[in-house]
User: Which sequence fits this backbone?
């Protein structure tokens, strides 16, 4: 079986899904091959020929090889301004690859691919992408690469791990190619985006004539069932097929999911809650085994926990048995993180950064969202992390149905007050989940013809429209003298994936 991570996803680290599936299949005696077509496709584009005409593009092209080498070295991450300029130059070369393509107007970057006029939210247009696969920017790459692999290994099945909208167009173009040239193959489609689409109660598979099986949720058992096997054992993720030295980071970042779903699962705006995804933690013994194996065999520079929120039990386990390398992930504000001693223990165990979904600096808004936390607890957590030397990557959400401009200004004031304890910031405007609990409380409608949309349009009940929110963010929030420097620190394009490398005290093992 061939397992594919399709273009485009951020190239800072390997994918987590297909190595986990590979480990399961191989543990049950089923051979498989992994293909990170996202990374390979990006490197293919960068090796292509372009004819830049403007000064910036010419300079970016001239520096390409040097920049690719530098982004993989720790020295670059000691100079934030140089890093930001280098990343923008790399991205400029990628953008020029889209312009050189000429056939289709594209939005292309290091982490995004969108064909204008071919929406990944419309099943009909994804099916058209399969029919018109030759027009895809990556066609010359995947035509050669898939032929090479399929002719060598004679696969019976090919699985695609589709997690992001930026992967959708090329995923279906690759499927269209395989259907045209290898019609005997069984095509399997899974991943986070497919899981979200299939969670809709009115889901009717629009891809049934093109795709043989769509799988929602963890794929281990369903894949084994296709081979007539039952899940009887587990194994650590197997990254052995992937080009681990080629990712664009100063050392190997190893992603690992210790759970699926969220142990809190009560936030009104959260897709996990809206889609009814259950919380399924991996037992701590298995986690310790997996981390020990991966850290000993692969020697990563950084562990990236993919959990929606690291559970208190997992954090205590990491304190008791540190993985031996720096690590980071999402965490939920609670009394543990508000304890300076606990945070010092996390730091000693290797924690270099925690991502925190604070969302708002107004208590009424937090309560309306079901966050279950207080502003006092948030303040104590930020102080404790700062004192321990753990970086914070803070997420704020504007435009929820209960928020007003005045309450958004409360968030501004709260952020400014805690500016010294906030290392990085991510600002987002609220999207109404299609199945969210608030969807029936406001005037809303599904976006026209977007049958795969996970969100719906809505009229804010308090008149706090998206246009007004953007004006507030651009004219007030981002210009605040204590907040602007935080926003400037955020690594462009790679954002939280590279942020730990700039954390105080971080060093490669």
Assistant:
């Amino acid at each position: 079986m061939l397992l594919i991570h399709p273009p485009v996803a951020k190239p800072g680290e390997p994918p987590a899904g297909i190595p986990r599936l590979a480990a399961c299949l191989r543990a049950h005696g089923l051979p498989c091959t992994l293909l990170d077509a996202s990374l390979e496709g990006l490197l293919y584009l960068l090796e292509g020929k372009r004819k830049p005409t403007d000064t910036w593009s010419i300079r970016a092209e001239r520096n390409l090889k040097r920049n690719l080498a530098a982004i993989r070295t720790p020295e670059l991450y000691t100079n934030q301004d140089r890093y930001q300029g280098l990343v923008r130059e790399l991205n400029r070369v990628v953008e020029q690859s889209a312009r050189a393509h000429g056939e289709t107007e594209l939005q292309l970057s290091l982490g995004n691919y969108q064909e204008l006029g071919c929406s990944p939210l419309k099943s009909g247009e994804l099916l058209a992408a399969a029919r018109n696969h030759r027009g895809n920017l990556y066609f010359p790459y995947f035509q050669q690469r898939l032929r090479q692999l399929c002719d060598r290994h004679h696969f019976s099945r090919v699985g695609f791990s589709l997690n992001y909208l930026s992967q959708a167009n090329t995923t279906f173009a690759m499927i269209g190619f395989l259907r045209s040239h290898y019609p005997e193959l069984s095509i399997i489609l899974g991943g986070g985006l497919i899981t979200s689409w299939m969670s809709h109660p009115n889901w009717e598979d629009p891809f049934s004539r093109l795709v043989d099986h769509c799988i929602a949720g963890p794929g281990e058992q369903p894949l084994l069932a296709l081979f007539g096997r039952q899940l009887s054992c587990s194994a650590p993720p197997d990254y052995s097929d992937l080009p681990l030295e080629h990712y664009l980071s100063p050392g190997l970042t190893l992603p690992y999911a210790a759970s699926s779903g969220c142990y809190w699962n009560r936030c009104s705006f959260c897709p996990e809650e809206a889609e009814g995804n259950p919380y399924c933690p991996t037992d701590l013994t298995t986690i310790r085994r997996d981390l020990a194996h991966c850290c000993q065999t692969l020697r990563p520079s950084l562990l990236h926990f993919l959990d929606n929120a690291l559970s208190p039990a997992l954090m205590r386990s990491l304190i008791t048995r540190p993985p031996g390398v720096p690590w980071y992930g999402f965490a939920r504000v609670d009394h543990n993180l508000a304890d300076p001693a606990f945070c010092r223990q996390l730091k000693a165990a290797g924690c270099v950064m925690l991502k925190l979904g604070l969302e708002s600096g107004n208590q009424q808004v937090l309560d309306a969202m079901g966050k279950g936390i207080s502003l006092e607890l948030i303040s104590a957590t930020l102080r404790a992390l700062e004192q321990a030397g753990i970086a914070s990557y803070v997420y704020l959400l504007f435009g929820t149905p209960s928020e007003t401009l005045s309450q958004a200004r409360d968030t501004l004031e709260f952020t400014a007050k805690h500016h010294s304890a906030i290392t990085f910031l991510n600002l987002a405007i609220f999207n109404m989940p299609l199945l969210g609990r608030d969807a029936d409380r406001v005037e809303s409608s599904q976006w026209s013809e977007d049958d795969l949309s996970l969100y719906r349009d809505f009229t804010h009940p308090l008149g706090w429209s998206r246009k007004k929110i953007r004006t507030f963010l651009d004219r007030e929030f981002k210009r605040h003298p204590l907040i602007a420097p935080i926003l400037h620190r955020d690594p462009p394009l790679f954002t939280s994936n590279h942020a730990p490398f700039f954390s105080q005290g971080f060093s490669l093992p």
Q: What stands out?
A: Residues 76 and 82 are 7 Å apart (CA to CA). The longest strand covers residues 302-310. The mean pLDDT is 94. DSSP finds 19 helices and 18 strands in the chain.
